[in-house]
Amino acid sequence: MTKKIIGIDLGGTSVKLAMISQEGEILEKWSIKTNVLDNGTHIVPDIISSIKDKLDLYQLTASDFIGIGMGSPGKVDAQAKTVVGAYNLGWSELQEVGKAFKEAFDLPFFIGNDANVAALGEQWKGAGQGNQNVVMFTLGTGVGGGIVVNGQLVTGEGGAAGEIGHLTVDTQYMTACTCGKKGCLEAVASATGIVNLTHRFSDNYEGESPIKKDIDNGDEVTSKAIFDAAKTGDLFANMVVDKFVDYLALAVSHIANTLSPSHIVIGGGVSAAGEFLREKIAQQALAYTFPQIRQTCQIVLAELGNDAGVIGAAQLVNTSR
Amino acid sequence: MTKKIIGIDLGGTSVKLAMISQEGEILEKWSIKTNVLDNGTHIVPDIISSIKDKLDLYQLTASDFIGIGMGSPGKVDAQAKTVVGAYNLGWSELQEVGKAFKEAFDLPFFIGNDANVAALGEQWKGAGQGNQNVVMFTLGTGVGGGIVVNGQLVTGEGGAAGEIGHLTVDTQYMTACTCGKKGCLEAVASATGIVNLTHRFSDNYEGESPIKKDIDNGDEVTSKAIFDAAKTGDLFANMVVDKFVDYLALAVSHIANTLSPSHIVIGGGVSAAGEFLREKIAQQALAYTFPQIRQTCQIVLAELGNDAGVIGAAQLVNTSR
C-alpha cells in the first residue's frame, strides 16, 4: 500500500485534519476545536494527541506516512518551522511547532502560512488543475493569498511573500488599512473594504436604494447584502460593486503581468457572489493586462472550499521533501 | 580542470559571447556583429561558427563544457527552444534556434528572453549577490525585467512572465503604450516615458526652466537632460522626475508585496542617473510597501552592466540542466 500524508489546517475556531493520498485524495478527515486558552499552549499538544488517537484507531504507524504538513495563521518561518504573531490563537510569542512535531512523530514536518497553503491546495487539486503557475486571492474579512510558481509555493525573504491584500491599488483616496499603510487592496476589496466603499459613495448618491437607506440609518451593511442588491439591479449597489471590481481587477492584472500564471483563483467568503463577481473581474482585468497574457491567464472561482487547507498542507509535504 | 559554460547575449547590433566558469567568472569574452540581413538567417550560423573558431583556437572540445546558454530578444519558448517576433533581428517568423545548436554541438542548450536572462545574471553574480529571490527592472527605451524566485527564472504560462513594463500604474491619465493597452509603466517610466511626462507637465508650468524652454521650442529632450537638470535643482525637471519616481515606486512595491524579494535591482540606460534616482525610488516605495517587507527588501542599482547577459546565460545552464 502506498504511503499517505497527514494534512493539518489550523484555524482560530477549529483545526481540520486529514489523511490524504500522495495523489491528493482525502481518505479520512476530522476536526477538533481550537483551544486558545492559556496563550494557545494546548493547541499543538491537542493536535498531536488527536493524530495519535487516529493512528491507533486505524492501527497505523509513522511508517505508513511520508510526512505531515500544516497551514497556520501568523508569520510562519518555513525553515525554522516556527510561528509568531498568530493573535487569534493566542500566539503572540514564537511557537516551536516543528520541534513539538519532531518529538512526537518520526516523520518529516513542513509548515506554511494558511492562506499560502490553501493556494497550494487549489493549485494542485482545485481550480488550478495541477498547473505549475497558479495564484489565489482569498477575499474574506481581509484579503489574503498565495502564489505558486514552477509548482512551488513562493515564500520570499522572511516568509512574507503573497501579501496580495496589501498591493496599493487605491492611489486616489488612499483608504487607511489595518496594516498601517494606505490604499491597500484589503481596505477596498474585502468584506470590510466593500463597506468602506459604500460609505465613500453614499455621501454623493441622490437616488433611491435600500442599501443606501440602511447606511443612512446607521444600520450594519454586509458585503452579501451589497452583492445581492447589485444582482437585483440596485444602481447604488452596482456603483459600489463596479469600483470594488475595478480595484480587484487592477490587482489581478499586476499578478498576471508579472507572473503570467495559467489560473488566478478567486476564493474566500466574498467569492460566494460567484459567477456574477468572477465575470466582472475577468472582464475588467482585460483592460489592465498585457495583450499576450490575456490569452493564457484564466480568472476562475475556487473549487475546494474548506478542504483547500488540508489538501494544500499535504502538497506542501510533496513539494518540500 | 572543471568544465566551463558558454554564455551568449544576442542583441540587435552585436552578439556578446563568453566562456564562463561554473562559479560565474568570465574566463574569456568576445563579440561579433549581428547580421540582420536576409531575415536574420545568418545570425545563428555566425554565432555557431564563431564559437567553433574559439574552441579550435584554445584546442577545446564539447567535453570541456557543461552547456550553452543564450538570451534572445523576442518571444522565447524555453521548452521548444524557439524564438519568434524578434523584429530587431529580422526574426518575425519562428526560429528553431535550439535545433541548430543541437546539430552543431554535442551539448545541452538553453534559451531565455534577454531581459529575463540579464536579471538572472544580476541575481547570481551582480547586485542580487546570489540571493534566491531577486527581481530586476531594466529602464531603457522601454521597461523590461526579469523575476527570479527560489533561484529559478520565472517564465510563466506561454513564457510571458516578467512583463514589468506593462504593469498598469497610471490609472488617472491612462497614457497610451506601444503594447496597445494604456497606463503601462513603460509609457511613463522609460526613456520615452519620462519625455511623455515632460509634455504632460509643461502645459501647466509657469516658471523658468531650460528643459521646459526646449520643449516649448520643439527641441528634442532626453531622459539624461531631464535627470541632469533635476540634479542641479531645476524645479520643473524635479516635478517630472518625482512623478516618474512615483510610478516606478508603485511598480516596485507591487513586486515587493507579492514576491518579497531580498533585492529589487534597477538597471538599464536610464539607471545611469544612479544613486540620485535609486534613493528617490527607495524612499517613495516605502509608502506603498507592506511594513514587514520594508525591512527585508533592498532597492539596489545593477552592477554587471553589459556582462549581465552572458553571465545570466551561463546561470541559465546551471539552473536548467
TrEMBL record, chains A, B:
Organism per entry: Streptococcus varani
**Family per record:** Belongs to the ROK (NagC/XylR) family.
For this UniProt record, the keywords arranged alphabetically read as follows: ATP-binding, Kinase, Nucleotide-binding, Transferase
Under the heading NCBIfam families, the entry gives:
ROK_glcA_fam
Matching entries from Pfam families are given as: ROK
Ranked from the top, the taxonomy reads: Bacteria, Bacillati, Bacillota, Bacilli, Lactobacillales
Q: Does the keyword Translocase apply?
A: no
Q: Which InterPro entries does the annotation name?
A: ATPase_NBD, ROK, ROK_cs, ROK_glcA
EC assignment: the record states 2.7.1.2
> What GO CC terms are in its UniProt record?
cytoplasm
> Which GO terms of the molecular function aspect are on file?
ATP binding; glucokinase activity
Name the record gives this protein = Glucokinase
Gene name of this polypeptide: glk_1
Broad class of enzyme this protein falls into: transferase
| Gene Ontology process terms (BP) | glycolytic process
**Top-level division of the source organism's lineage:** Bacteria
